[in-house]
């Protein structure tokens, strides 16, 4: 990372580690420090958001996605060509910088000393901050070091490095592949990949998920006007990898993405009802395929309305009974299984999902043990009662 890129990332709140890694505090980490709710991964998988560290060992990426939060201030490339930092240096640096940011919230209204103390002990690492984490040549050693410190791993890849996926050890807590389009034309338009064979690379990456023993996830980001119409195409892609879980999330608008005529605006941001309808149709199509014996049956498991995000899960792996699921993770059990050195499967560390986080629950995926506050939004199609006091959710 050169001085100009480092300065741009630092201005955006990133703490650059060494020559190619970074860490940043997530807004949901701040929210849970204040007792104001957790992210969708808290709702879907039971992570403690205030103990989650968002980091990457590779700020570089092979895509320049139109919806990227980072506005393309990070480097790009199709292969590793940078000075290589030791994985211990990266893990130590990420934890040090993460804790430095947590400390800054001492004394903030609503933040208790107990929450700060818990936040100083990260127990989860979302390897998805910016760039392509799986490009880092020692990703296996880095993940193993996180687990040695009892920090779970949520590794996200854009599916452009299938060889790295094939070589990934089966001890990642949860492995994601971002599926940003259902066909080659849309992928080129929305992801703007550097690889000419990006579509073939994505399909091969998805196919490799079938061989993985850890929890596997398709991560769909819905951008209205770009990739939301060809639901049948997404169903065909599900047949390739048959993932444990499918996350579908509405895009978050972060300003002009520098895509010219393909730049995003608020009109490209779907409502939760739109995402819900998409998921219901995708589930219907997949279960029609299940009847034909092509894919396992999927069900509507969870939703987090504030994040405009829904979760589908394989019924054969995670459904307990009608309306009851086991999408949460027993993190202590996971680390015990890793330490044993014996082979294990994803279902071996599954835990029951609380009722408040399930599909259609009145809590809408918000943890009832926390303070829920709302904001009156003037652009809402059905504005709430203006006589109610204005409140802010998860800020």
Sheet having the most strands: 10 strands, mixed
| Chain oligomer state | single chain
Please give the count of helices: 13
Rounded Rg: 20 Å
Order of helices and strands: HEEHHEHHEHEHEHHEHEHEEHEEEHE
What distance lies between the first and last C-alpha atoms, to the nearest angstrom? Answer: 31 Å
Global structural class: alpha/beta
Residue runs with pLDDT of under 50 for 5 or more positions: 383-395
Q: Write down the overall geometry.
A: globular
Classify the beta-strand content into a percent band. 15-25%
Total number of beta strands? 14
Major β-sheet strand ordering: 1-2-3-4-5-6-7-8-10-9
Average pLDDT works out at 89
Overall helicity: 25-40%
How is this structure best described in words?
By secondary structure, this protein is α/β, with parallel strands linked by helices. The chain has 13 helices and 14 strands. The strands form 3 sheets. Strands 1-2-3-4-5-6-7-8-10-9 form a 10-stranded mixed beta sheet. Helix 9 crosses helix 10. The protein is globular and about 50 Å long.
Q: Which descriptors apply to this entry?
A:
globular, ten-stranded mixed sheet, disordered C terminus, 32% helix, alpha/beta, two-stranded antiparallel sheet, 395 residues
List the SSEs and their pairings.
Layout: H1 3-11, E1 15-17, E2 21-24, H2 27-33, H3 40-45, E3 52-56, H4 87-103, H5 113-119, E4 124-127, H6 139-148, E5 152-157, H7 162-166, E6 174-178, H8 184-191, H9 198-208, E7 215-222, H10 231-241, E8 245-250, H11 272-291, E9 298-304, E10 309-314, H12 315-318, E11 319-321, E12 324-325, E13 328-329, H13 331-340, E14 350-351
Parallel strand pairs: 3-4, 4-5, 5-6, 6-7, 7-8
Antiparallel strand pairs: 1-2, 2-3, 8-10, 9-10, 11-12, 13-14
Helix pairs in contact: 4-6, 9-10, 10-11
């Amino acid at each position: 990372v050169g001085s100009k890129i480092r300065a741009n990332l630092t201005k955006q709140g990133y703490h650059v580690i060494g020559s190619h890694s970074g860490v940043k505090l997530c807004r949901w980490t701040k929210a849970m420090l204040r007792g104001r709710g957790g992210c969708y991964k808290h709702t879907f998988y039971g992570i403690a958001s205030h103990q989650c560290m968002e980091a990457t060992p590779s700020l570089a990426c092979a895509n320049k996605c139109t919806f990227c939060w980072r506005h393309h201030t990070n480097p790009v490339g199709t292969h590793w060509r940078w000075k290589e930092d030791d994985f211990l240096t990266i893990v130590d640096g990420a934890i040090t910088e993460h804790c430095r940011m947590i400390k800054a919230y001492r004394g903030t209204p609503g933040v208790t000393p107990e929450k700060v103390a818990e936040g100083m002990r990260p127990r989860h690492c979302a390897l998805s901050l910016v760039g392509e984490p799986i490009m880092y040549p020692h990703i296996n050693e880095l993940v193993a070091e996180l687990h040695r410190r009892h920090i779970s791993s949520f590794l996200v890849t854009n599916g452009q490095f299938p060889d790295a996926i094939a070589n990934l050890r089966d001890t990642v807590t949860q492995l994601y592949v971002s599926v940003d389009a259902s066909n080659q034309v849309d992928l080129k338009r929305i992801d703007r990949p550097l690889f000419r064979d990006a579509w073939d690379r994505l399909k091969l990456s998805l196919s490799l998920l079938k061989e993985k023993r850890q929890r596997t996830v398709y991560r769909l980001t819905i951008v209205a006007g770009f990739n939301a119409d060809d639901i049948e195409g997404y169903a065909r892609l599900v047949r390739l990898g048959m993932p444990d879980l499918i996350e579908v999330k509405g895009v978050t608008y972060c300003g002009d993405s520098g895509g010219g005529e393909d730049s995003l605006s608020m009109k490209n941001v779907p409502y939760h009802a739109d995402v819900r309808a998409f998921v219901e149709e995708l589930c219907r199509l997949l279960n029609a395929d299940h009847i034909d014996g092509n894919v396992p049956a999927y069900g509507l498991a969870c939703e987090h309305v504030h994040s405009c995000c829904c979760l589908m899960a394989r019924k054969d792996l995670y459904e307990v009974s009608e309306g009851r699921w086991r999408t949460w993770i027993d993190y202590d059990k996971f680390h015990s299984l890793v330490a044993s050195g014996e082979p294990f499967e994803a279902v071996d560390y599954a835990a029951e999902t609380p009722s408040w986080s399930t599909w259609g629950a009145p809590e809408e995926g918000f943890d009832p043990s926390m303070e829920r506050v709302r904001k009156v939004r003037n652009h809402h199609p059905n504005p709430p009662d203006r006589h109610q006091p204005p409140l802010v959710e998860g800020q």
